[in-house]
Amino acid sequence: MWVYVEDLPRHVGEKVELRGWLANRRKSGKLVFLILRDGTGFVQGVVNRAEVDEETFERARRLYYESSVRVTGKVRADSRAPGGVELDVEKIEVIQATTDYPIPKVREENIPDVGKLLAQRHLWIRSRRQWAILRVRDEVQRAIEDFLHQEGFLRLDAPILTTMAVEGTTTLFRTDYFGEPAYLSQSGQLYMEALACSHGKVYCFGPTFRAEKSKTRRHLTEFWMMEPEWAFATLEDLLDLIENLLVYVVARVLERRRRELEMLGRDLTRLEAVQKPFPRITYDEAVEILHKAGLAFTPPDDFGGDEETVISQAFDRPVMVTHYPAEVKAFYMKRDPERPDRVRCVDVLAPEGYGEIVGGSEREDDYETLVQRIREHGLPLEPYQWYLDLRRYGTVPHGGFGLGLERTVAWITGVRHVRETIPFPRMLEKIYP
RNA sequence: UCCCCGGUAGCUCAAUCGGCAGAGCGGCGGGCUGUUAACCCGUAGGUUGCAGGUUCGAGUCCUGCCCGGGGAGCCA
Questions:
Q1: Within chain A, which residue ranges are assigned CATH 2.40.50.140?
Q2: CA A21 to CA A126: how far, in whole Å?
């Protein structure tokens, strides 16, 4: 009977078949230990020379890692096993015998450098570390969707091919749409604003593309963003939603992917600290923190990586920074009536220097003001006509935010670089495999 | 686009002042009945990124190029 590794504890004493790959092999005289993985987990199979025929024992002795196999044996509870169970192997069927796997089986002291691993990303994802990271990614994604549906949001995705910029024209990937120029989406937000006027609470979750010439551990040219948009929401409503969302997501990962976090060596106490309330500070207060830390920072300016790190390290949980100067933020953000040089926006900075994981705002809902902002930002009015319609026909106050999936996963897993948090990262001048 | 670091065995790295190119891991062969990225013995494995230059002699010094990494600018 075919059983997955994660289900083995329910089959102790039974004879089962595992289908998977050899992750490692250790030999000890008349015993061979086969570490098998099948996608759901890892388990050690024990091949005892005294209990199998000579051919099976020889096959086990010579089996090279990353060979694909079907292994039959009896499940045995064993306190020595990390997962609590082992398999007493009776039969090994080799589907394909690998003989020269490109990624070496190595110890901690000589892991290949990251350039070589990235060139083998299609195989690298089989390693324990990458396996654990991507399982956390899946859980983060699911937790976000579960939470938003509980809150009454509908997932209605935005198009990828568009005709206009959301975040600035220099970072658009241009493509050809039947002879007309088109761009890969930088954000689904404008479309979500339209959908919010149809369904009230909506979100999209998909890839976004930014042709930024950035070579840092926080940047990808293709990354996944989750963007809720909420009709009649104020900045304060958004702050509450973000706070509840992040607390929920972290708790879910701690509950369902604790083993993976431990495999990654994550300090779980840092995640357990992620509880309400999150600190809420203004841009001005953030600047004070920078000045107290001795940084030479002159507002109005946006925070760079160094600034974000210093601000976030002042707190043990995500910090929400609001009311940025209007000139450093996007055209669609609504000015604060009490301070017209400030916008009613929020950036959420993850702890431990992981940088901005959420950015959001109330949206400008007045037709004339919005037209003026588009002009001020040097953007063409024509492609935005449908967007302006939203302010012509029943405009309402509303707002939303975008959460960057890869940065969030990097923070939760403790992985330094976002390139490990997506299956196939796209970075500056890197698109293979 | 700019700055910094690097490229030596399949992988990670040594190689003193410019003087015989080495080790660990991995592979292969052997040993070991409880290993947890095992251990022990043996063994094979090299166009020192590429091209040129200096020198009696270059992995080492010089020039150019290629590739990789880190950072900045930029950027939700």
A1: 5-96
A2: 10
- Strand B positions within 7 A of protein Cβ atoms: 1-2, 10-13, 24-29, 31-39, 67-76
Complete edge-to-edge strand list for the sheet that includes strand A201-209: A154-155, A201-209, A222-231, A398-404, A355-362, A345-350, A319-322, A280-282
Q: Does the CB of A111 sit below 7 A from strand B?
A: yes
What tens digit of pLDDT does each residue of A22-55 get?
998 888 888 999 999 999 999 999 999 999 998 8
Contact between residue A117 and residue A103 where contact means Cβ atoms under 8 Å apart: yes
State the complex-level ipTM: 0.87
Indicate where chain A has its CATH 3.30.930.10 domain(s).
122-420
Give yes or no for a contact between A308 and A349, defined as CB atoms under 8 angstroms apart: yes
Distance A212 CA to B4 C1' (A): 22
Length A308 CA → B75 C1' (Å): 14
Whether nucleic acid strand B comes within 7 Å of the CB of A107, the answer is: yes
User: What's the CATH class of domain A122-420?
Assistant: alpha beta
Identify the residue whose Cα has the smallest distance to the C1' of B73: A214
The CATH topology of domain A5-96 is OB fold (Dihydrolipoamide Acetyltransferase, E2P) (2.40.50)
